[in-house]
Amino acid sequence: MMYMDLMNIVIGMLILIIGVMISLAFLTLLERKVLSYMQIRKGPNKLGFMGMLQPFSDGIKLFTKEMIYLNFSNYLFYYLSPIIGFILSLMVWMLIPYYFNMISFNLGILFFLSCISLGVYVLLIAGWSSNSNYSLLGGLRAVAQTISYEVSLALIMMSSLIMIMSFNLMKYNEYQLMIWFYFLMIPLSMCFLSSLMAETNRTPFDFAEGESELVSGFNIEYSSGGFALIFLGEYSMILFMSLMFILMFMGGYDLNLIFYLKLSFISYMFVWIRGTLPRYRYDKLMYLCWKSYLPISLNYLLLFIGLKVFLM
């Protein structure tokens, strides 16, 4: 019986990973198409119907290119960091609350926070091991930004945790049947969404990859497979962060069409904001986190604790 359960979990995880990989491919295509139409041009439209095969072509091209060997790099860390980053971004997907004969995490939110915290090391090691000033600066900026926004992210999550009093993501479904948490805490949910953008290094918070200052940031020395793994990990986290926002603030996890429309819309918002807003200034990014988001999230947290104590 235990062997069958283990097999079910392994098969389920394989199906999940394949699904995530295909989703990533089409998310990159969506981004390129949306940005191209925002800039009044066509975008990829040659390979397959309306450019549908473009992501697969890009993947084959990147993974068949030669990997450059850097003479002065820290060889082992340089090659391992993109692989570890990609594995971490796929590990987070184990949190999806399964309804059918699968695992359910009772401490899922702690697992999520642990995984995104480990992602910081990947950025730092990738920047440091390349042995380039640009990549080191990009890695340091990415680490400072990610750690800062993880503080406010964790506090915002704690505010919603006090509402459900559980670390299990499936509990969000039960408490959002009548009204979404989004309507109960609109300022907090907007802070959460922009913190997710900072966490995934997306515009307007993409300072780890600031082309104008850092010539592409911490990943400058990576080409072919290493480059592809770094960006697959990044887009995997974008998709997962969109899922987390829906789970926590927009009605939870439900296997129906509306759930997938919500997920598509939040993922589209990441692209939409990239095409609309310019890059922020780095010091203003840090001020926004420590002087705005942190006080707001702390005040909300204290408010919800007070309400919980009063109602008990």
TrEMBL record:
InterPro entries: NADH_UbQ_OxRdtase_su1/FPO (IPR001694), NADH_UbQ_OxRdtase_su1_CS (IPR018086). The keyword Repressor does not apply. It comes from the Eukaryota. Keywords: Membrane, Mitochondrion, Mitochondrion inner membrane, NAD, Transmembrane, Transmembrane helix, Transport, Ubiquinone. GO terms for molecular function: NADH dehydrogenase (ubiquinone) activity; NADH dehydrogenase activity. It is an enzyme of class 7 (translocase). PROSITE patterns: COMPLEX1_ND1_1, COMPLEX1_ND1_2. Signal peptide: none annotated. The keyword NAD applies. It catalyses: a ubiquinone + NADH + 5 H(+)(in) = a ubiquinol + NAD(+) + 4 H(+)(out). It is a multi-pass membrane protein. GO terms for cellular component: mitochondrial inner membrane. Its EC number is 7.1.1.2. GO terms for biological process: aerobic respiration. It is found in: Mitochondrion inner membrane. PANTHER family: NADH DEHYDROGENASE SUBUNIT 1, NADH-UBIQUINONE OXIDOREDUCTASE CHAIN 1. Belongs to the complex I subunit 1 family. This is NADH-ubiquinone oxidoreductase chain 1. It comes from Lycaena phlaeas (American copper). The lineage of its organism: Eukaryota, Metazoa, Ecdysozoa, Arthropoda, Hexapoda.
